[in-house]
Amino acid sequence: MKFQLKNIVAVMALALAFTSCSDDDNNAITGEGNLKLEFDNVYGDANFAFNTPYTNSNGEVVKASNAIYIVSNIVLTKEDGSTYTVPKSESYFFVNEADAASTLLNLPNIPAGNYTKVTFGIGVDQAQFNAGADGQGTMWTDAQALGMTWSWAAGYKFIKFEGTYTSSTTTTDTQYKVHTGKTGDVYNYTEVTLDFPENALVRTNITPQVHIMSDLKKVIDGTTKINFVEGASVMGGTKVQNISANNVPTMFEVHHVHND
């Protein structure tokens, strides 16, 4: 009888301990915190740096001098499948290789939770564009300051990737320009979803930092390959459409998550 009583007491104590732990976990995942997305530009297997020669699969050697892209419409997914959408007015960023601070996106007021993936756009979605300059706050003027606009009718440049190239037939440095954005009736806005290799634990006292590798080589040397000898200004038509549809979705990969 004493043996049975001891067993019962032990089971009750164990159940109470599990309940206490569960309550602690539930209490820990409340409130709001911050999350950071770090965009680290690379070129294929190499670190990316301006004015550094990189040889593409077509034999052309490029040296970039300008690399900017718009990240927008960020949505975070929790491990239970629920999502948090960062307000559009707070969810556009110009990731500019020339400005180190711009490559680290700070997202405040994120509901505490365990997040497993992120979705974002490259460019400005059509609804935002259709809202006009008055509906976009400082986005348009911010873009103008960085040379990320055409005329208002044409709208934004989603990616600006510029520099010089040489090839077997073009032996002196020749300027190239790649600008993506709306072409005719095709909007070319691209959405990217990335799984995290480990959960991002947003807490009131923990700010996860998600390290995203951005392969700029994929802009011009991905599924769709750009040959600058055929035309060094890539700013419209099917080439931009193919870059947006085929290359941009493969540019990004989460390398790791810091939960500090």
From TrEMBL:
Superkingdom classification of source: Bacteria
Copper-binding protein MbnP-like domain ranges (all copies): 33-232
Keyword list, A-Z: Signal
Source species: Flavobacterium helocola
Protein name: MbnP family protein
Signal peptide bounds: 1-22
Listed Pfam families: MbnP
PROSITE patterns per the UniProt record, alphabetical: PROKAR_LIPOPROTEIN
